[in-house]
Amino acid sequence: MPPKQKQPYAPISSSSWLTLSRTRSKHETDFTKSRQLGQSSRATGSSVSSSSSKKLPVWAKQNKGLAARQARDQVQYEEDPSDGTRDPERIKSALERKAAIYDKIRSVSRGKTGGLSDAQIDSLLVDFDRKNYDHPDLSSDEEGDSASDVDESKTAQLTSKRRPQPGPSLPHDPLVEYTDEFGRTRMVPRSEVPRGAPFHDPTAHLPADPSLPSSASALPDDGPAPTNILYGDQTHFPIYAPDPAVLAARAASLAAAAAAPLVDHYDATRETTRQRGAGFYQFSGDEDERRRQMEALERERSETERKRREREVEGDRVRRERERERDERKRRVEEKRREVDERRRKRAKGVDGA
Known about the structure:
Layout: H1 14-36, H2 66-79, H3 88-108, H4 118-122, H5 128-134, H6 152-162, E1 175-179, E2 185-189, E3 199-200, H7 215-218, H8 244-259, H9 287-353
Antiparallel strand pairs: 1-2, 1-3
Pfam families: CCDC174_GRSR, DUF4078
Domain CCDC174 alpha/beta GRSR: 176-195
Protein name: SPOSA6832_02906-mRNA-1:cds
């Protein structure tokens, strides 16, 4: 049986090869991204998930009800856009509804229920009885049916009534312009301006009224001028004077310190843990006895140094004698060597002559 012939390879064009490579790279990129995001990867052309048996990580799971809340929020955003393009009709109807509710609440203060139950009336946050008592002009029916109809000019007048206003200028205490520590320009009476602070009197250039009393007689009597006020740069200051008792105690302490010895000698009896050497010597605490001990030690030292010098002198004499004896022995040895050499030479000449 003749052998089967192998089918020849199908020719592959370069464009097909590039398309296959691009498709393979795309699938690899999608697979890598899906693994990083924790999603299940699916092979192309297959409905079986390669990671269906694996659970998603905790951080990749969504909270319960998140999708439903997002859907409700999306519907709310579509009905009420936040880009500033609100429906004017809807705003107007909402305001009218709020005004009707407010009218019902205001009717409660006039003895009417306004369609509200007792629980709703008790839960109101505004005490309209107290409000009508404080502002009776705002609760009258002649101002309108809603609080928005109140004339702003009347409100401004009421506000201006509550604001404190400067009183009238008195002849003996005129109003002046004064700048306080916060930089505010105020009209205050001259008596309220701090001492030394600059101010401007707008009535200073006006002619004096002869019917008014003079300023000297009209000013209130502040009493005598204070005597503890210092003007100008201060170059003199009080000097501290201590108590004589303190000075006496300080002088006594200085005298006691001067009478005490200038040098505090070492006392070995106060220390028990210190190791003392073989040449340790404990001096007396009495100055006289200590001086005698020091003199005795000095004499001992002098005697020791004298004997040391004598020994050195004696040692030098002995050393010189020994050196002289050594030199003498060396000289004798040399002479003896020369004699022996001379006899050897004579003996050698006699043998040669014979």
